[in-house]
Amino acid sequence: MNCSSELENKIVKTGLCTSCGACQGLCPYWLSHRGKTIQMFSCDREEGRCYAFCPRTKTDLAKLREEFFPDADYIPEIGPFYGLYMTRAADADIRAKSQHGGTTTALVELAMRKGLIDAAILTDAKGGVNPKGVLVKKPQDVRKYSGSSFQIPPVLATLNKALEENRYKKIGVVGTPCKTLAVYKMKSRPFPDNDGNAGNIGMVFGLFCGWGLDWEGLEKLVQRHAAGKQLEHMDILPSKFHQMVLKTSKKQMEVPLEEIYPIVKGSCNYCVDMTAEFSDISVGGARSSEGWDVDQGWNQVIVRTEKGVKLIDLARKEGILEFKAVAESNLEKIKQASLNKKKTGLKNLRKLSGSKNNLIYLNPDEPGIEKACVDMA
Amino acid sequence: MSKLLSPANNEVLFMGNEAIARGALEAGVNVAAGYPGTPSSEIIETLATVVKERNLYVEWSTNEKVSLEVAAAASFAGLRSLCVMKQNGVNVASDFLLHLTASGTRGGMVLVTCEDPGALSSVNEGESRYFARMLEIPLLEPANFQEAKDLTKWAFELSEKIRNVVILRSVTRMSHASGNVICGKLPTKSRKALFEYKGSIMDQLRGPVISTPVVIKHALQQEKLKKAVALFENSPFNTYSGPAKPELLLITSSACFLYSQEAISMLNLQKRVGILKLGCTWPPPPQLLKKHLKSTGKVLIVEEILPFLEENVKALAAGMAEDIGIKKYYGKMDGTLPAVGELNPDLVAEGLGKILKVKYKSQPPGYVKEMEKIIPMIPKREQTFCPGCPHRASFWNMHNALQLDGREGFVCGDIGCYALAALYPSCGFDTVRTLHSMGSGTGIASGFAKLGQFGFEKPVIAVCGDSTFYHAAIPALINAQHNRADITFIVLDNSGTAMTGFQPHPGLTVGAAGESVPAIDIAGICEAIGAKVAISDPFDLEKTCGLLTDFLAEEGCVKVLILRQKCALSPEKKGKKQFLMKVDEERCRGEECGCNRLCTRIFRCPALVWDRIKKKAVIDDVICAGCGVCYSICPQKAIIRTEAKQK
After folding, report:
1. What is the reported pLDDT for B151?
2. What is the domain range of residue B508?
3. Which of B356, B379, B414 is the last residue of a domain?
4. Cβ distance B305 to B124 under 8 Å?
5. From residue B123, how far is each of B87, B417, B525 by CA, in Å?
6. Which CB contacts under 8 angstroms, 24+ apart, belong to B161-164?
7. Domain-embedded: residue B367
8. Model confidence over A163-194: pLDDT tens digits?
């Protein structure tokens, strides 16, 4: 049965739950507390939106792609594809507060100003601890929420509530791959008579993601390294630096990755999507052959839909983003990185299911998965 | 004038408990103390209404042990005193009772225990007659309403004859049923309190009242008991009716006497069965028993709860076997009568039928079939919290906080209306995992919280009511604080001893007889113990759940949350609605995804009804108490509340 108790038993209890919040804000039965998804009471319905929207319940990804990305090229490692860009926000104020180049903030702000979206679901990262979802209604407010969060707040609960309210008709959503997949599952309207106004979802902005951190684990880590300090920002540097940095307005603290690995959120081990394949446009930190010194102020952007193309063209035309040439090797690099994540995810899913062919929520025939399987064999 | 003060020779309809109170008044009782507990509470309540007229001191004590001590002091001062409790209260009082029986008493002192066969209003089927045997004091059991009065009066006389406390035992059907009673005289003089203590340690009337020298006083106590037995041999409260040589001798006491009489008459066995009804059941009078046991070969003992009388009769019979010969015994032990639960005339008749080969079926042919037809037509009534009950909201908050906490924490329940919380799904929301005696939830929680070194990691909540807090929870709370047991302790403060009928307790400013008394502040006590204390209104779901969630997460100290909201049936609230409630049918989602009947399926206030035809929730206005809590739980805001105009 595609129901609440199934979600509790097969997803939450097994450690697959990403805490995205897709099951929340719909009913009184699902809530989130300190990063944990909680079934408050049993629900005896035989099917529910909670189960249907969850990014970790079985999904026919090919069908979902056909519905929402009919004309895009498809690259098995990184999903629907119109183009790859290197960009950063032209506005230095945005860049100053961003994790990388501030591209997402600039794009969301632009989309709202131009009426492509009329509100946006963002994450209030609060310097990295106790983040939460916010519904932003004015373009000038978007930049207040730039910067990343490593705890994973149930942002989609905020989306569900905003959709239910039915006040905004083109809501933009920014989220990690698990969240954007859930948003596309909502958009596919599994219950046409009770679709929670899914038609009000405007654009989807994906964020590249390696993994998130366990809520309590990060809280304890921050207590260890920056007790009592107001953090403004946190970042995980490229692998060769082997560290996470916590920043206050005055100070930067480096934390070796050995302390980070144990607090990686368990469910992230089962993720096979690095680039938010289900989104109109997805943005991540630049990783080029030019090296970190050059890359760190830039983003790379994958455009996946016509809407995404329209927005990035607009950003170029309006001078919102600065662009630089994308080296040919970049696409290969990102494909390889993405494939590596798929392989790790598959390995862990096989371990969890105890069978080579049982990938739990994934279909082994899915081209990206197939490719990773072949590569692993 | 209270009917309790009716003139002598008047025939008055008394409830059993009123008859006991009247008996105490006829005995010239001066002091009465007790702790509320069904089915005993009306005795103290009734006496409290005549304190002025009869110059009585009546109090609701903090617990049963204290009430026995208060009553004992009156006896030591030469006054007559009554102490009242329900069966398990005797357990609470028993440590003092042991020592009291050893020191002996002066003024007549009677301990009334009202017991609850079948646990109609209890979470135990406790039996306190064994205390009489174990502690070597007399036990009396009235078998009708007249006797309830007369035997109570005589109990005081007996107590003064033997200078020891006497137990009078009633049961629910004796205490709570009513019958005609012919009143006796009320004394015109009241005693003066005089406590003499300057005599020798062996002088029971003038020396210090202590239980030492133990062995010598123990022997003295046994002498007193022998004196009681001698009085029992000829007591008019032990009666026999039936043929001189009955085919079957039925020995019984208390309400079972009435059941037995009815059963014999239903089966027309008057000529075959004789009834020996004992009003004096411990120690059983041996000569009287010998006489009747000799008269027959078959003996049936009819009694409720444990086979106390049966054991005692058999033990006596074994000692006199040479004289009385071999008998066949029937009763609880051989299964002729049920070993547990309440008896009734049908059950006794079935037992008689088995022994005497008389065909008796308590149910006519086709009864079960007819019942099966009718049962589905009876509206379902869950045993649950009342509409507007603060406990429903309190346990809702506990459930939600425990779920959010996510460590599978649980509640150690306690005794009061909130014991119902153990009944899931009707109420309690599947939170209560232990339920025992008053205050023991806190002690158990204190114990659980110390199991960390053995890998126990769940947070523990203990609950108790305001009255229970004073009764027995304080020592456990001190224990938790002193031993660093990290518990969350919730006081469900509904401003009264609600379950037994709003008797006052130390938290209130009014005493048993309506006098003004100082209230003892729960929060102040908890703070003085060193706990972290917060107070909240359980109807404020957001605040209460938030506080509780924070308390559960906070480690290293005892947290006390006082949830304060008056009982919906309290005199101040009863019949007054704060809010008028209604359901907006447009907004109500009913069974759809998005709600799935949270209000009627999970919250289950009896005033929330599911309209099966409309598939919408409805408020039953007749029983809705207007607390407004369902407004806060509806995710659709489909339950609307408007402030009611106060009359």
Report:
1. 98
2. 390-564
3. B356
4. no
5. 11, 11, 28
6. B161/B227, B161/B228, B161/B231, B162/B138, B162/B224, B162/B225, B162/B227, B162/B228, B163/B104, B163/B105, B163/B106, B163/B204, B163/B205, B163/B224, B164/B101, B164/B104, B164/B105, B164/B137, B164/B138, B164/B221, B164/B224, B164/B225
7. no
8. 999 999 999 999 999 999 999 999 999 999 99
pLDDT digits (tens, 9 = 90+) for B271-282: 999 999 999 999
Residue B362 lies in a domain: no
Instruction: Identify the band that residue B647 occupies on the pLDDT scale cut at 50, 70 and 90.
Output: low
Sequence-separated (6 or more) residues with CB below 8 Å from residue B496 = B466, B467, B502, B503, B504, B505, B508, B566, B567, B570
Final residue before a domain boundary, out of B193, B217, B233: B233
Residues of B in contact with A33 (CB under 8 A): 404-406, 549
- The set of residues, in sequence order, having a beta carbon less than 8 Å from that of B55 and lying 6+ positions away, is B30, B190
First to last CA, chain A: 34
DSSP letters for B544-592: HHHHHHHHHH--SS-EEEEEE---TTSTTTTT--SEEEEE-TTT--TTS
Residues of chain A with Cβ-Cβ distance to B429 below 8 Å are 41
Same domain, B484 and B544: yes
From the number of C-beta atoms within 10 Å of its C-beta (0-12, 13-18, 19+), residue B433 rates as middle
- Let me know whether B222 and B243 are in one domain: no
CA angle B333, B334, B335 (to 5 degrees): 95
Over pLDDT 90: what percentage of chain B? 93
B591 to A45: CB separation less than 8 angstroms, yes or no: yes
Separation CA B492–CA B507 (nearest Å): 13
Res. B501 pLDDT band, cuts 50 70 90: confident
Whether residue B478 sits in one domain with residue B604: no
Which regions of chain A are under pLDDT 70?
none
- C-alpha–C-alpha distance, residues B475 and B63, integer Å: 13
Question: Does the beta carbon of B404 lie under 8 angstroms from any beta carbon of chain A?
Answer: yes
Q: Domain check: are B204 and B268 in the same one? A: no
Find, among B159, B238, B178, B237, the residue nearest to B39 by Cα. Answer: B178
Position B516, amino acid: S
Contact A38 B404 (CB under 8 A): yes
Residue B282 belongs to domain with CATH number: 3.40.50.920
| C-beta separation of B105 from B78 below 8 A | no
> Cα–Cα distance between A27 and A345 in angstroms, integer?
31
> How far is residue B427 from each of residues B42, B385, B386, B395, B417, measured CA to CA in Å?
29, 7, 10, 8, 11
| Cα B119 from chain centroid (whole Å) | 9
One-letter amino acid of A61? L
Is the domain of B102 the same as that of B174?
yes
Residues B168 and B205 in one domain: yes
**Nearest-angstrom CA–CA distance, B7 and B399:** 56
Domain holding B625: CATH number?
Answer: 3.30.70.20
- Residue spans of beta strands (DSSP E) within B16-70: 31-34, 57-60
β-strands B559-564, B532-536 pairing: parallel
Q: Do B593 and A48 touch (CB under 8 A)?
A: yes
Establish if B376 belongs to a structural domain: no
If asked whether residues B557 and B583 sit together in one domain, one would say: no
Residues B50 and B185 in one domain: yes
Q: Does B591 touch chain A (CB under 8 A)?
A: yes
Look at the block and give the residue holding tokens 């006590």: B525
Q: What is the CATH number of the domain that holds B30?
A: 3.40.50.970
Domain count, chain B: 4
Query: Cα(A266)–Cα(A339) distance, rounded to whole angstroms?
Result: 20
Q: Which of B403, B592, B593, B601 is best to mutate for the A interface (most A CBs within 10 A)? A: B593
Q: B366 lies in a domain?
A: no
Residues 6+ apart with CB under 8 A from A316: A323
ipTM of the complex in this document: 0.90
**Residue B481 amino acid letter:** Q
CB contact under 8 A, B598 and A36: no
